Amino acid sequence: MVDNTQEDVTCTLDIVSHSSAQTQRLGMRLGDLLSGGELLLLEGQLGSGKTTFTQGLAMGMGISELVSSPTFTLLKEYAGQMLTQTGQSPRRGPALYHFDLYRLDDPEEILDLGFEDYFYDGSGVCVVEWADKAAELWSDGHLSIRLKAMSETKRSLLLTATGPRYCELLRQFQKNTYATASS
What we know:
alpha/beta
């Protein structure tokens, strides 16, 4: 799973989802691990499950608002929810910044619109659908998720973590997903 070079650590995980509900649950498992400052890059054809995965991610982050694809607006923001843990003061969870670059013609448009501020501010979770349309803009640290339709209901998800922080996130995701699935 891990290719260990000091400068550019890369880890991968390949998962097959057998339904949209399972794709959403995978998103929930990952969302539960996010604390803010993460950059998730989603790639895949129309109907491959990018928005379904993002809906699960939002649920895992505690966001109850209905998540839909921001195809016509490029960006939808979802406020982080109030989180309470026993013995601690309530705190607000990270916001979700959901981007859809499908209608983007030039990656420079992201810079012109000031969107890079979202990617590097460190407080929210950025999810970018059609991220491959702006591949040259992404930093060294991110989690790329390539979704591919294998049949009407079956999807392949290839998760590639770039950087030590994201490799650790992917390890935790794998541990939580398979520990939960087997219990």
